[in-house]
Amino acid sequence: MEKKRLFSGLTSTGRLTLGNYIGSLSKLLKLQEDKNNEVIIFIANLHALTIPITKAELLRNVKENLKLYIAIGIDPKKTKIYLQSQIEKVNELFYILSTMTTIGQLERMTQYKDKATKQANSTFKIPTGILFYPILMAADIILFNPDYVIVGNDQKQHLEFTRDLILKLNNNYDTDIKLVEAKIADLKEGAKIMALKNPKQKMSKSDQNKDNTIYLLDDLLEVKRKILGALTDSENKIYYDLEKKAGVSNLLVIYSTIKNISLKKAEQEFKNLTDYRKFKEIVADQVCNLLAKIQKNYHNLNDDKLIEILNYNLKYLKKEANKNLDKIKDKIGLIL
Ligand code: TRP
């Protein structure tokens, strides 16, 4: 049977959180174990240029993220991993796709509108890179002609945009690019990881209140302190109810996903416990065990190892990208 190609891009901005781990990264770990999958992921360092960033910050983010992906268990022998700027052909496809897109289409993108309104009352002017963000994303994808793209809910619109471009290419130029489908990485039934002090809101890496967010590289004593300080309720019963018990439910989701058991099973474990402090300590232990492992792996990786990892599949990936781009260029009439 032919393998299904799964593709995903990870933005290289900011530090990764427990929410990122549970919500999406841990999914990649499962997917790479399936022999029927070919998993390709990349770090979107070109997309990272759409907000002002220094060379030092950019390099630090990319290295930190790459190290974390490896530290959590992404295995370069099972998952092909590259840096967006390593595959230069993406820029050529980006240009071609830009000729098939209208400015109006781009201006209607939710992410663009959000970013544009946020910038509107500051002196910062919106770079065209932000407007063109979805075209580069489409180019990332179309260059590798995958069966599935793994994205969070917030990227669904960009994926629809990509699918429209694929249909246009196939119709106008008679290419045979696969109509890629989304695999949404977010957890089901509202089981997103929420902010510890404000469990009605998503855990975010850019939260002003640092007690809301657990970063994968946080000091473990800090992690414990944050979990013990999580907002709960006064019922002193531990069960899952997103509406009435958002804080307790959040801790249950964290506990059950790290332990790889169902929510039901987790509820059963705590059926007779009425002490929230004890409950939080047990959850904190579970989280700290996970983070201790990740952090140990993380600190064992050096820059040389990272370069080795980035070169591991580069030849193959470049060949795939060249082949797909040449097919498109040929159909369009760019190759004599
Ligand atoms: N925009 C994606 C995000 O913020 C990252 C990304 C860039 C991506 N190019 C992609 C994801 C291609 C999937 C496929 O998460």
Question: Approximately how much beta-strand content do the residues carry?
Answer: 5-15%
CATH class of the largest domain: Alpha Beta
Which H/E pattern describes the elements? EHEHEHHHHEHEHHHHHH
**Helicity level:** 40-55%
Structural class, judged by helices and strands?
Answer: alpha/beta
In spatial order, strands of the major sheet run 3-2-1-4-5
Quantity of strands, as a count: 5
Name the CATH homologous superfamily of the largest domain. HUPs
CATH topology of the largest domain: Rossmann fold
Number of domains: 2
Q: Which geometry do the CA atoms define?
A: globular
Q: First CA to last CA: what distance?
A: 36 Å
SS summary, helix count: 13
Which small-molecule species are bound to the chains here? tryptophan
Q: Describe the largest sheet.
A: 5 strands, parallel
Q: What is the CATH architecture annotation of the largest domain?
A: 3-Layer(aba) Sandwich
Oligomer: single chain
Rounded mean pLDDT is 93
What is the topological layout?
Blueprint: E1 4-11, H1 18-31, E2 37-44, H2 55-72, E3 79-83, H3 89-98, H4 103-107, H5 110-120, H6 128-144, E4 148-151, H7 156-173, E5 181-184, H8 220-228, H9 246-259, H10 263-269, H11 276-299, H12 303-311, H13 314-332
Parallel strand pairs: 1-2, 1-4, 2-3, 4-5
Helix pairs in contact: 2-11, 3-6, 3-13, 6-7, 8-11, 9-10, 9-11
The chain binds tryptophan.
Tryptophan is lined by residues 7-9, 11, 44, 47, 137, 140-141, 149, 151-152, 155.
GO molecular function, one term: tryptophan-tRNA ligase activity
GO biological process, one term: tryptophanyl-tRNA aminoacylation
Protein name: Tryptophan--tRNA ligase
